[in-house]
Amino acid sequence: MDFLTIKNLHHTYFTKTSATTALSDITLDVKEGEFISFLGPSGCGKTTLLSIIAGLINPTGGSVLLENKPIKTSQNDIGYMLQQDYLFPWKTIEQNILLGLKINGTLTPEKKENTSNLLKQMGLEHVGAAYPKQLSGGMRQRVALVRTLATEPKLLMLDEPFSALDFQTKLKLEDLVSNTLKNFNKTAILVTHDIGEAIAMSDRIILFSPSPGKVHKTFLVPDELKNLPPFSARNHTVYTELFQTIWKELESLDEE
Question: Any idea where the ABC transporter domain is (predicted)?
Answer without folding.
Answer: 4-235
